[in-house]
Amino acid sequence: MKTRVFSGMQPSGNLHIGNYLGALKNWVRIQHDYECIFCIVDMHAITLPQDPAQLRAKIVEIAALYLAAGIDPQVCSIMVQSAVPAHAELAWMLTCVTPVGWLERMTQYKTKSAKQESVGDGVLQYPVLMAADILLYQAGIVPVGEDQAQHLELTRDVAQRFNSLYGDTFVVPGTSLPAVGARIMGLDDPAQKMSKSTTAAGHAIALLDPVDKIRKTIMRATTDSHPAVDFATAGPGVLNLLSIYQAFSNATDEEMERRFTGLRYGDLKKEVAEMVISHIEPFQERYRQIVSEPGYLAGVLRDGAERVAPIANSTVRVVKERMGLYV
Ligand code: TYM
Predict the structure, then answer these.
(1) What CA–CA distance (Å, rounded) separates 85 from 253?
(2) Can you identify the CATH homologous superfamily of domain 4-177+294-323?
(3) What's the predicted TM-score (pTM) here?
(4) Catalytic residue at 193?
């Protein structure tokens, strides 16, 4: 039997090249080697306030972006989290075995709660729902960007704790990070991770941004005070541009050094912009075709949920039995 892979994205904000290079590109690469489930995690999105109509539109947009990136729905299951109620059921059962202290230590919780006077309990519970997503399907591999690594450690801790309390139940999943592109930084500020929730102009390149805007954003990206590329001394802004180029092109380290050493930053930016655009243009074309057939997308999501629900329900049944709930 093939190892199962599970991963997902939140339908909040616009997907950007960090999401693509950190996760989606890898999903496409491995989809034929594993049994893959790719989820749109709408219940994670509502941990922060969302406009209902916008959220519903985003769910469909993300599904279309998965397909446009090259995820094949004949081979993988593409599904919406809330369409399979077992995600919420298992999350509750796991909540009951997760110490609050583990959750309060999560960087994402600390950052999100620091920004507001008070946050909903969902922000604290967020990683437990994520653990449920993964453990429901006994996934062995979870391909994500670096910012999710801490949540995956927590998932492993929760799985191990449950297994030791109630007997071997869950596969303990491994994290799979891409060699290049695991953490793409903001183009306006290379000290900050590129983020869907940052709306500052010049911060991110969204996958659906017009080509002119992409070019402008890259040409204005923050670099450093050197005039040209020197791999030994390059600052974080230049390294970020180089990573973006390398992740899109799959160039080796040697090829990168040969091509870019000594190149002036203006020319580096032009090359990066052309590389990004050469990938994003055909991607956007496929996206437009996919959304022109809404019935097709709805069918993909329905099939995906129908395919995975029996796996999820059987895990919930086992967990209920182990915990002594009524079955
Ligand atoms: P989300 O929606 O924030 O991000 C989706 C994926 O994109 C990666 N990513 C990045 N990679 C590189 N550079 C960046 N700047 C960057 N920003 C985001 C993320 O690491 C992620 O892989 N909690 C998850 C969603 C989730 C999930 C899951 C993932 C819910 N359940 C189960 C895996 C398995 C999240 O908010 O991702």
Answers:
(1) 45
(2) HUPs (3.40.50.620)
(3) 0.97
(4) yes
